[in-house]
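ARCHIVE CARD
CATEGORY: sequence design from structure
SOURCE FIELD: tokenized fold
FIELD CONTENT:
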């Protein structure tokens, strides 16, 4: 059950699963986009009943469910799904939630309680939210990039860079409650605008001035990111252990030195050579200084070397297809990872 609606599809999950099914590594596969059905109209209760009937008829070995906000699923629905699943009921929540200001939605709480295992993108409050809700087994899985989202992830590293630094982020200034650290994000962007001037490009809604370039479509993020040597971001949820949004893996995989908020846990995740392509700062001022220091001390050839290292790191750690397989194999190795990668590579070669 993918997190998708409208024209957006979770191709980072759909395509590799479909490839495994075509190759016989998965005996049978069904995809049910409940959120898309509910948002598209009609009787939401009928859509939920249809889901239950489909699952009961299919009797899957594995159910993999993603971010269920807006589906209206309740405890009784999850009980029916749980009873129809023969082995592994897996819930993947890649959206960030705090304890009070931006709390875990009811669908996620009930899914986590019913699931055999929950995967979430932070090791601190994000994981504790599920444990407090009754989840039995909560594990960390990083945010990912979809290698099949755009062909540009496989292109040669871009050498023409009209900007030194690029920021892709929306300006979030709420009237009442906003996402955590929204003030620090605004301060960071404003500091960057003052310091770098036209050497900086800012993509996203709400920014003003000569550096503001307007929104960048999700499918075109990589083009925006690689228009500069360094991509920079100030995270919401800056205190969450081991958390980063998909901006980090997308930036590294697309081909950029990435600068971001330091988090607890980063020392272990990004130790040693990762410091060449991932810059971290504990304050907006410190992060800006680290960006300027790298730009002043490196040649274009050295930056390209660092970018290539970052792309290899992202491919080894943050591919959505590899991480999806980690979820499926969390308890039993249903699909051997090297065999899956060979299937994906062979079918993509045929397609290309």
């Amino acid at each position: 059950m993918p997190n998708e609606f409208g024209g957006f599809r979770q191709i980072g999950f759909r395509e590799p699963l479909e490839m495994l099914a075509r190759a016989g590594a998965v005996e049978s596969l069904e995809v049910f986009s409940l959120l898309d059905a509910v948002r598209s109209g009609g009787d939401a209760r009928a859509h939920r009943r249809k889901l239950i009937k489909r699952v009961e008829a299919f009797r899957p070995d594995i159910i993999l469910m993603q971010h269920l906000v807006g589906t209206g699923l309740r405890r009784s629905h999850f009980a029916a799904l749980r009873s129809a699943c023969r082995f592994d009921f897996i819930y993947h929540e890649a959206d960030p939630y705090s304890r009070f200001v931006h709390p875990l939605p009811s669908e996620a709480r009930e899914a986590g309680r019913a699931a055999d295992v929950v995967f979430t993108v932070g090791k601190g409050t994000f994981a504790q939210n599920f444990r407090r809700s009754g989840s039995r087994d909560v594990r960390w899985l990083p945010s990912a990039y979809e290698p099949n989202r755009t062909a540009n992830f496989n292109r040669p590293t871009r050498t023409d860079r009209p900007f030194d630094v690029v920021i892709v982020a929306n300006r979030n200034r709420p009237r009442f409650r906003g996402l955590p650290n929204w003030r620090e994000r605004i301060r960071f962007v404003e500091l960057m605008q003052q310091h770098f001037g036209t050497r900086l490009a800012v993509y996203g809604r709400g920014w003003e001035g000569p550096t503001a370039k307007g929104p960048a479509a999700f499918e075109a993020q990589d083009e925006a990111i690689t228009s500069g040597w360094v991509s920079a971001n100030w995270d919401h949820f800056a205190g969450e252990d081991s958390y980063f949004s998909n901006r980090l893996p997308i930036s590294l995989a697309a081909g950029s030195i990435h600068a971001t908020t330091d988090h607890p846990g980063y020392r272990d995740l990004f130790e040693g050579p990762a410091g060449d392509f991932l810059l971290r700062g504990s304050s907006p001022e410190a992060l800006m200084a680290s960006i300027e220091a790298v730009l002043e001390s490196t040649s274009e050839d050295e930056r390209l070397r660092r970018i290539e290292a970052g792309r290899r790191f992202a491919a080894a750690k943050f591919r959505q297809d590899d991480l999806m397989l980690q979820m499926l194999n969390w308890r039993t190795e249903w699909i051997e990872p090297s065999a899956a990668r060979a299937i994906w590579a062979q079918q993509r070669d045929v397609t290309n």
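CARD ANNOTATION: The mean pLDDT is 95. The two ends are 28 Å apart (CA to CA).
SHELF: design records, drawer C
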